[in-house]
Structures are given as C-alpha cells and as structure tokens.
C-alpha cells in the first residue's frame, strides 16, 4: 500500500487530507516501535555517558548508536528529505547516492526539536512505558543493551518524523488562512498562533484512536480480549498527550514564527 | 514486558514453553516490519547490483545497507548473541563493547540459511506482499529507496532471527528424545528427522494465528472491520507457510545433522 506521502509534489504534500492520512499512519509506526522497545527492561545504563564505555566516544551507548545510525543513513540521503531531521547534525556525511531534487514545499526554517524529543522520551515516555512490565527479579540485562538501543533509534526517529510533520500542517494552514496568520506572526503572538492551530476535538479523537490502536496492536488476537498484553496502553496515550501533540504544536508555532522571514529566494 | 528470552541461562533458553513464547512474540515483530515495508512500492531497482550506483561497492542498494547495518551492529556485539546470524559475515567488525560470556547452549554448528532467506524474501515474499497495493500510476519512487531498504533490513533480520531459532527448538527436542534423534542422525535420515520434528496440527495453528494477527495489526481499529487495510493478510500467511516454517525446519534438520560431531570441547 503506497501510504507514504509524496513529497516530490507540493500540491500533494500540502493537501490536508494527505497530511492527516500520513499522521494517522505514523501512529501505527510509532506504536509498533514502542511495543518492540518494551520487550526489554528500561536498562538505564545505556543512557548514561560512560555507563557503557565506548572507546573514542564520550556518548552514552544509546546516543552513540543513534549518531552512527544517522551517519549511515545520511549516506543514503535520509536527511535530504524535507520530513527528516537529525538528532546529531554534526555526524552527517555527504550522500553516496545522486541527490534528489525535492521541490520547495516548506519555507526555509531551522526548527528542530529533537533535543526535547530525546529528553522527554528518556525521562517521561520510557519509564512509564517500561514500568508496568519491568520485573523486579530481573532488572537490567546487559545481553539486551544493543537490542534496546536499536529499538530506541526506531522510536526516536518515528517520533521525530511525526512531530516535525507539524511543519507541513502549519504551512498548509498558513496557505489556507494567510491573512489571519500573518497578523498573528507580525504581533509575535505565539499564544494566538497556538490557539489558531489547536482543535481540542480533534486532539481528543487522536487520543481515543491511539488507545484503540495500542490495545489492538498490543495484544494477541488469538488469545481474546487483552490477551498477552505487550504494552501499557495508557503509557502510549500519555506519550501522545504529553509529548507528541504538544511538541507538534511547538513545531507548528515556531515554523510559523519564521514564515515571514525574507530568504535569498524572495 | 520482558518478553525477550534469557539466553544467558541455558535452562530457560531451552525450555520449550519459553521458546514457544518467543516464537509467537517474533510473529508480531515480523508482521510489524512487513507492514512498515509495504507502505512503499516494490522498488525493484534497489535489489539490482548497479541499479542504484554505489561508489566503491558493487552491491545493490538493499544489500549495501544491510551489510553496513550489520557492520555497525557487530560493533555493539549483535553477532555474539547465539540467536543472531549475519547475512554478510565478511563485513563484521570487532565489538567495541566488552564481550559477554554467553553460556554454551547450542552444539557448535555452522548452519546459516540467510542466503536462502534473502532470496525467498526478494522473490516470493515481497512481490506478493507489495502486489495488491502497488498502484499502476506510481511505480517506483526514488524518494523512498532509502526508506524501503531500511525496512527490508528490519524484515530480513527479524525473519533470520525467527528461522534460526529453530536451533533452540532442535536442541530442546534432541535433549528430550535423545535416543530417537541419535538413531536418525546416525542413519543420516533427514526425512526421518523432518518427520520427527513436524507437528502439522501446530503448523496449522500458527498459520491461523498469523492470519488473525495480520488482520488485527494491519487495520485501523477505529475504522471498524478491515478498516484502512495496511497489508495483504494472505501474503503474510503465505510468507510463513512457504518460507518461515519450511526454513525453520531446514535449520532444525541441519543443526541436528551436526549434533553428534565431535568438537574441541568433547
């Protein structure tokens, strides 16, 4: 199913129905990855610089693996795509593949909230998602440090993509109600912009859908209701209400705040 | 949920109930990854050496990314784990982490069916899984080559882990019915071993569970029955009946054929 949004066509990329479809589809991706992650205990050691000693690096194991993954994926031009933002921009390398010519869809901007995503993922999402299932008799398992960090890479990248998709949402809204937003931006009225992009009813629907999805994807349908629960459903809902939705709105607001900046193209 | 099997404890690693739990859990992992993969079209160009030119390598893009991923993960000791087998053993590097001392669980053996897994994945699984959804008006999308290859890495690694878990199944069965298997192995009776490890009733149950899972994880529960179908359910079932189950049994048989070989430890 070609569900990936076509970012090579500005009219499709900014169609709110397409964006909505992509955002809903990304919910599945995020839930799949977090379900995979909580197979393993919290393993806090991998998040502490020096917790696992890495020759030649002072990063934590989790950060080191994320940075190396970004280095590798930058070579197959991941970070040329307008919906991908790195956590470690300094490690990126020149792509080995021919560059693609994406059309200009977004206004030039430097919004990147990955540092906040990473912090909230470690401090809020993981402890809550892992808590319910961490068995006291087990604690950390060194054997799973690598697998755990690998799952974290997938979770963080999916969260980052979902949250930075807010830029497309913001651009589409800006094009739809340009005058309203220009006024708010000129007044630097971040609260007003936040109010203009917020739809509480839709947010409630998102959380309700998340709950249903986490329950469905997190249980074994052959076992019946709640069979072999793989994830704490409420932790998934909280991840969205406390991290994904607020940070998406932050991205939208900050993107719009840069929307009127003159650029070399204008 | 600490669902990862504890391979540092031989009694747990060879407990058939634990193995069964792990195999059922790996079904979810595989289904999640294949659902992610079929977001993108087949993109056959990435599987052809030279299809995407890679400076300094004559591998296809998909193989190159898999090899580089294995190189990176070997450094965090992925391939020291007794349930992980590389597709490109020649690229592996020395781990940067302290080695773990896994106890000896399996008999020394060189069974690795990854070449066959890769071939069947490309020739049988992908065309079928992608077919139903590939839109004629779209065909390949270069913008998704990297994402597609990244999903393939996840699928292939999950399939490989699931299929090579057959070694633990075989070892547990061998320990349970040693005399029976020793006789068959001495006679080099591969057919007899295959018959001894086959339980058609269980295989039928596995396929039925797969069908339920593919349907549940592949639809949006907020939309109702079959809502926003993300994957061709029968392609997932066929992947198991034609690839996963036969190759797992091949691994079991070939492992057992090496089970009586003297080693330096004996």
Report on the structure:
2 copies of one chain form a homodimer. The longest helix of chain A is centred in the last third of the chain and has 25 residues, at 233-257. Chain A has helices spanning 10-13, 16-37, 61-75, 114-131, 145-164, 166-176, 178-186, 190-197, 200-217, 233-257. Chain A has a single domain (10-257), classed as Chorismate Mutase, subunit A, CATH 1.10.590. With 266 residues, chain A is mainly alpha-helical. Chain A contains 10 helices and no strands. The interface between A and B is large, with 66 and 66 residues. Chains A, B: Residues 145-252 form the Chorismate mutase domain. Chains A, B: GO terms for molecular function: chorismate mutase activity; L-tyrosine binding; tryptophan binding.
Tell me the number of helical segments of chain A per DSSP (H or I, 4 or more residues long): 10
Give the biggest sheet of chain A: none
The CATH homologous superfamily of chain A corresponds to Chorismate mutase, AroQ class superfamily, eukaryotic
- Helices and strands of chain A, in N-to-C order? HHHHHHHHHH
**Any guess at the CATH architecture of chain A?**
Orthogonal Bundle
| Count of individual domains of chain A | 1
Unreliable stretches of chain A (pLDDT < 50, length at least 5) are none
Global structural class of chain A: mainly alpha
Enzyme class (chains A, B): isomerase
Keywords (chains A, B): Amino-acid biosynthesis, Aromatic amino acid biosynthesis, Cytoplasm, Isomerase, Phenylalanine biosynthesis, Tyrosine biosynthesis
Pathway (chains A, B): Metabolic intermediate biosynthesis; prephenate biosynthesis; prephenate from chorismate: step 1/1
Subcellular location (chains A, B): Cytoplasm
